[in-house]
Structure formats: C-alpha cells, structure tokens
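Work Package 3 (structural annotation) set out to generate three-dimensional models for the target panel prioritized at the project kickoff. During this period the team completed the workflow that converts sequence records into discrete structure tokens, so that structures can be stored uniformly alongside our sequence database. As a representative example, we reproduce one entry of 187 residues exactly as it appears in the project archive.
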Amino acid sequence: MADPMMFLFGKPELKLAALDRVMEANRRYQTKADWQIEKKAYSERMWSYIITADVYAFMYVFSAPTAQVKRIFGPPDLLVIPPWRMAKDAIAGTILGVNGVRPQSTGFYRQMWCLLPSFFTLSALTHLSECKRWSSYLSLKDKTNFGDIAGRIDDGTLTSAPVFGSLDKDTSDAIRLPNGQIQLSLI
C-alpha cells in the first residue's frame, strides 16, 4: 500500500505520466487487471467532470443578482403542472432567502465565483482519482507487467535493467517465445 500522505503531498500524476508512456508502447501486453484499473479511472474521471459541471451550475445560480434569480425561476413555466411550479418556487425561495450572505455579483467578479470553486473541485477530484489509480498499480507489483513497471518507477530503478514481462501460455505459444517472456519497450 502506498504512503497515506501521498494523497495530500504526493505527485502521482508525474509517475503516471511515465507509466502511461510505457503502457502506450506496450498496449498489447495489458492484462485484465490493468484494464479494470483503467476502466475505473475513466469512470472516476467522467464523474469528476459531472460533479464539476454541477458545482459551476450551482455557483452560477448562487452568485446571481436577485433579478436574475427571479427571471430564472419565475414564469413562464416549461411544464404547466403544480409540482414543477412548486419546485421552482422552493428553489427561488431558498436562494433568495440567503440574500444577506450570498454574493450578488456581475462581470468578472461573478466569473470568479463560478470558475474558482469549479477549478478547485476538478483539481481535487482528479488528484484523488490519480492517487487511487497509482495505488492500484502499486498493489499489482510483481503480478502484472504494468504493476511491475509501476513498482520500478516508484523505486526509481526503471532504467537500471531491461524490463521483462510475461504473457499467458496461449499467446506465448502463438508467437513462439520461450517461457512466455517478452522484453517491454521503455520509450
């Protein structure tokens, strides 16, 4: 397991940049465990984008002047049904109820209120996702080709000796390699 302080002060993005280059060059040697890590990282990345867009939308409405909030949540209604109107009234009442503490800004000041929280949210979520991805690769050290390379990157011994990976029996028989050993390229 990786150092728990890496979540705050580590730089897994730099280590993953080196690992990603090796993974691109040796994509055909990816195992199912490596694929699951990448699939989970992709899913987390998409969720971080959705959450960031939600933060931006919330801050856009929260930092709007009173007149704009009334324009957004006032008539005309898209759906003429009572729950729609009640929901819009409840949201407008909640936002206008905190007029004393919310910033009612326009121009660059409003863009600051929208963009800065969104940026910090995206940065934090991306960093946590990359920390989880790096820890997942380190947990596969000596089990998969890319886990072994991640361990060598973490130890700083990546270029000290050639990196040999292994293939499953069917693939090694198909390309006639002894013992299923291949030398991975470290571009």
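The beta strands are 164-166, 181-183.
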